[in-house]
Amino acid sequence: MKRSLSLLVVTLALFSAIATADPEPLQDVCVADLTSVVKVNGFPCKDAAKVNATDFFFDGLAKPGATNNTFGSLVTAANVQRIPGLNTLGVSLSRIDYAPGGLNPPHTHPRATEIVFVLEGQLDVGFITTANVLISKTIKTGEVFAFPKGLVHFQKNNGKVPAAVIAAFNSQLPGTQSIATTLFAATPPVPDNVLTKAFQVGTKEVEKIKSRLAPKK
Ligand SMILES: *[C@@H]1O[C@H](CO)[C@@H](O)[C@H](O)[C@H]1NC(C)=O
Ligand SMILES: *[C@@H]1O[C@H](CO)[C@@H](O)[C@H](O)[C@H]1NC(C)=O
Predict the structure, then answer these.
(1) Ligand 1 — pocket residues by CB below 6 A?
(2) Ligand nearest to C-alpha 50
(3) 70's torsion region: left (phi>0), alpha (psi -120 to 50) or beta?
(4) Looking at residues 41-54, what average pLDDT do you find?
(5) 216 lines ligand 2 (CB under 6 A)
(6) Which domains does the chain have, with CATH numbers?
(7) Average pLDDT over residues 29-46
């Protein structure tokens, strides 16, 4: 009895160790048919006879993205939606550009761990554990920092020149929930009385944040 219980525990532990990222592929390639109306976990494969190099290629990370927006940063994703060949392969990249003072605001990726490589500049980065411990560091050109799966994290360019990173993910589509916009710019809106209680502030403050974060018309 005791032995079978410990076997079960070991089996469950092994299973969770191999099942924490995207599922393993069951064929060489399954290039996403992004236009298919069939709904599956991921995307259905397009006809193998129609697969070519274009399905595995993207040049959108070559140049800096425009950072003249509210937060002074721009994420350019190279995920399965841009590179259909990534379907079922469990990896993707992004390029993030930061103006001086620019912030990639606190957010989580529900489906991936992230690791960033600094292309240029210097960033103050950090993540917060579920025990509310902030793990933070300043990183510069050529350096690497990792953000564990699902944890809230951010990057800020406190320098006087632009900064940029390449971010890698162990998911074809990591997903992003930006904490402030998730709570204050959802559609339909999260009720004010949820936010006033959660943040221990008044309705006026909540309405002010909501108006600032409202999607630009
Ligand atoms: C790949 O196939 C598409 C059409 O499916 C075509 O437009 C494109 O030119 C092809 N690219 C290469 C590199 O052969
Ligand atoms: C950002 O700059 C580009 C190019 O200079 C411009 O076309 C665009 O309208 C600007 N966007 C905003 C939000 O100011």
Answers:
(1) 50, 52-54
(2) 1
(3) alpha
(4) 96
(5) no
(6) 53-174 (2.60.120.10), 185-213 (no CATH)
(7) 95
